[in-house]
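Input structure tokens:
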């Protein structure tokens, strides 16, 4: 394990579970999900998220990127690409086994010309034993920051 990653090792593994999506502009929905967090020897963790609709297993969303320690103690950085034509750079803090990340302030959401109208994202991950819970809040050009996703995943490996 790279020595800069010691405080983030609680995230390593394959996590599977389910969640609930909602937003002021859509009907609520349920989904299943897998998150894989891996270490490859460098000072970052690989992050891969895949989700699909509960029941019919239709693909729903994917995220690929990196979780990195920041320049200050307890600081964390998240760099993700989304197939919606978005990239997300979020900064946050690590407190025990909880991570709070946001694109507000020093972070950024960039998008392609046809990319989704997302303007901001905030995430909270909490791990207790082998259970990861999270909440994701999203803002768009037309909607203020609102709860969008929440899930509970269990470590498989």
């Amino acid at each position: 394990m790279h020595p800069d990653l010691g405080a983030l090792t609680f995230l390593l593994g394959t996590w599977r579970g389910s969640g609930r999506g909602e937003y002021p502009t859509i009907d609520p929905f349920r989904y299943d999900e897998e998150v894989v967090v891996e270490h490859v020897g460098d000072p970052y963790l690989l992050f891969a998220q895949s989700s699909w609709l509960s029941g019919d297993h239709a693909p729903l969303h994917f995220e690929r990127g990196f979780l990195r320690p920041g320049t200050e103690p307890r600081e964390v950085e998240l760099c993700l690409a989304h197939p919606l034509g978005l990239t997300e750079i979020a900064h946050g803090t690590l407190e025990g086994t909880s991570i709070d990340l946001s694109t507000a302030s020093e972070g950024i959401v960039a998008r392609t010309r046809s990319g989704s109208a997302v303007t901001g994202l905030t995430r909270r991950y909490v791990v207790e034993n082998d259970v990861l819970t999270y909440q994701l809040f999203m803002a768009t050009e037309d909607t203020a920051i609102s709860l969008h996703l929440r899930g509970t995943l269990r470590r498989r490996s």
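The mean pLDDT is 96. The domain at 3-155 is CATH 2.40.128.20 (Lipocalin).
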